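Job type: complex structure
Entries:
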Amino acid sequence: MKKLLAFLLIGSFLTGCASVSFAPADLKKSYAKRTGAQDIKLYRTEQPKGEVIEVGTLNGNGNPDKIIEYFREKASEQGGDAIISLEPYPGGYSATVIRMKD
Amino acid sequence: MKKLYLVLLSIFLFQGCSGLRVTPTKLDKNGKAVSYAPVPVEDVKIYSVTKVKGDEFAIVSLEGQGPSVDKIFENFRKIASENGANYVSGFKLKTELKSEMVSYQSCSGSGPGGAGTSCTTQIRTETKQYYKATGSLVRKSE
């Protein structure tokens, strides 16, 4: 039974699981959600024009497609408009959530 | 027994050194590292891309195993707070998955004085996540 559970866990990790964590840049500030997850833009070497507020940092491990999907969801929940500085590492990604200044 | 030593040695080599390093980058007139009075943890802001105009006085490097970015931020806030920095700028995080050989020993049977006990050592490969986080401590008057 234990072996079966271990197989299922490993299998789900390889085929589709990802874990994502977020940490806010400023503990005293929170931002209202205004951009849907599907509209969160991803940037690796560039960033949107205009003044931005840094909302926080994302880190994720596991399936790359899932990580990006969860990054978008997390960024949207935290009031972000875009994800910048997306950096791939062995087994994961880190990135920064930003919000455009009004 | 030899196997066990080899396994422990390989684990040590795989892990390498880990820990915290705070390197002062600014000296006062007497050649001593510039220091500031501690600030409340909740006042510390951590930025990766935002440029902070203030007095940058130390570099922090933190390495370890496992924690998520919110735990790493918690540790960074504590270090910055104790060192009197109200900002951490240029925060960078690198994570890496490493395979390690871990040994498990199981023993069975027992007789008088431990006679009749047989032990077997199993070696398994486990994947663990390591991180390295760096940032600069900045004091900015607000």
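Summary: Residues 19 and 61 of chain A are 5 Å apart (CA to CA). Helices of chain A lie at 2-15, 64-77.
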